[in-house]
Design brief:
Blueprint (H helix, E strand, L loop, with lengths): L8 H23 L6 H26 L4 H4 L4 H15 L2 H20 L10 H22 L7 H25 L26 H16 L1 H10 L1
Length: 230
């Protein structure tokens, strides 16, 4: 089995490809593609996101590695994978608000420090990076092509919703022995949590970092508006 190498050549390449697709495809659809092709492209993005996630569940069930402790979609990227196709097809602003902050904040972190052990060219390698890449692509597509925008109030609301989820997610973790949201312990693979101290003390800086990440992904919009006004 090929072992994943953090920041190895394959990791850098898949990050680069994911970012290029997330930038170039929405630009191409908005500026170069006929309007009649926009809906089919959006439908393909939405369906492929769900199909990719279902393929992971199917693969793990068939090889006997699926567990409720690890593979339920009870984390920010899991929520985003479920919600982003609905956002695209319904053009739903409320769902966009959640997926924008959860998706960009969570998926970018996942691309940089993925919690996987399987390297290229295994199925789980492609499945992981395709799923998280699609979250980012969906958000950029909705922003560039569909004209949706995050707001400051949406950032505040999403922050409180995220904090509110800690209680039910914590209860689920306690009941089934899982670690969703990484609030019961650090993942085994290297992540930013390694720099935040031991459990449970890292939960405080983790919450602060979450707010900072939400602010950073929102920041380009007020900066752009200020730039245009001057």
């Amino acid at each position: 089995m090929n072992t994943f190498e953090l920041f190895g050549l394959q990791h850098f390449l898949v990050i680069l490809i994911s970012l290029l697709v997330a930038i170039l495809l929405p630009w191409f659809v908005k500026n170069r593609l006929k309007l009649t092709w926009e809906y089919p492209i959006r439908l393909i993005l939405a369906l492929s996101t769900w199909i990719n996630e279902i393929s992971m569940w199917t693969y793990r069930v068939m090889d006997g590695t699926y567990t409720f402790q690890e593979h339920l979609p009870l984390h920010l990227c899991g929520f985003s994978i479920i919600l982003s196709p609905i956002m695209l097809m319904k053009k739903n602003q409320k769902i966009y608000d959640l997926v924008y902050f959860w998706g960009l904040g969570g998926a970018i972190q996942a691309l940089l420090t993925p919690t996987i052990e399987h390297g290229f060219p295994t199925f789980l390698f492609f499945q992981f990076f395709y799923g998280h890449g699609m979250i980012i692509l969906s958000v950029v597509y909705a922003t560039v092509v569909l004209g949706m925008r995050p707001t400051f109030s949406a950032m505040i609301k999403t922050s409180f919703i995220t904090l509110g989820l800690l209680v039910p997610i914590g209860i689920v973790n306690w009941m089934i022995g899982s670690n969703y949201f990484f609030i019961s312990g650090k993942p085994e693979t290297p992540t930013l949590l390694d720099f935040m101290g031991p459990w449970p003390f890292y939960l405080v800086p983790l919450t602060v970092v979450g707010f900072i990440v939400f602010w950073l992904v929102y920041l380009p919009f007020p900066l752009y508006r200020k730039f245009r006004s001057t």
